[in-house]
Fold this protein.
Amino acid sequence: MKKFLSILLAASMALSLAACGGEAAPAANSGGTPAEQSVSTPAEQSESTPAEETAGIPKEKIKVGVVHLSDPSEGTGYTYTHEQGIQGMVSNLGLKPEQVVEKINVNDTDASAVENAMLELIEEGCNIIFATSWGYMDTCEALSEEYPDVIFSHGTGYKSNGKNFNNYFGRIYQSRYLAGIAAGLKTESNKLGYVAAMGKNNGEVTSGLNAFAMGAASVNPDAKVYVKVTNSWFDPEGEKAAAEAMIAAGCDVIAQHCDTAGPQLAAEEHGVWGVGYNSDMSKDAPKAVLTSVMWDWSVYYTKAVQSVIDGSWKAGEKVENYFGDMGDGLITLADLNTELAAEGTAEKIEEVKAKIVSGEWDVFDGKTEIKDNEGNTHTLEGADYGSCNWYVENVDESL
């Protein structure tokens, strides 16, 4: 059945290419370092590379699939933020709602459920599938070999094949460093809590935690960051319980790399402060949240789908990885709650942010030596999450 479906998809693609005519547009900058990337607006892209003049897929015929870890209707957190990005892409490109097919509550630890969700999207004619959670990576890798005419775009992972399977992520540590400044200036106990979805060996989580701790130390050398690991990307009860344990141990600012607003709710209930993640969690815990580390996924989703439409991304030929940053708008920081934040926080954040956006400075530049909490020194380049399996010197693992 899979092979038969692959043949049908290939035939469909061939018909679309024949209908489009003309020569392929020059490849867009969809990968490489952030400095190499060039993000044009949808209007500019449409004007310069109209679908009917390229070897891409006509806009009115493209179909986009999305696999979500939870339900976007939660209204906050990880899945909600990705859904906002998808809807932003639909609006930017002028797609119809029926051109997007979404699968929700797909457990990324259930390989069978993940495969079934993606196969359903393929059967419904999706040309590109966005798989938003880490645990979808291996299924994307396998199915990309079986269905070479479908593009599989995987969020947060590290695998790709350069043909029809890529990964996308960004320098989220940049915003985490800035959030660390807010936390370091606010704490009264010099104990900051951090709810981590995964442990030290997960470079994505660990590099962000390190950046947060470094940001805090830059303004408060006495600040320590205490970490508790839930071993799950999505665990509402476990995330809140981890935050409560750290609050009980004296932490008065709670940050997080996990999916729900549970840690921020715990912070508000116990009269301490917090830093949200993914979406602006001040609406969930307005009396606690100083700011939130956020993504604007519409930046990537718009770029990716437009590239498939104009033919600069074509399954089997060239599908590159994407790693965005604060400069291209993928990485953001929610407005600071100036009523809660310490005096001078906004000014300090803006000072450092300007250096990051301009390229004058970055948290992980691949050259500066960083000391870990075991006395060793390391260097880290921002895109090399895989080598970050250590915590910086002001991170405490004892709780």
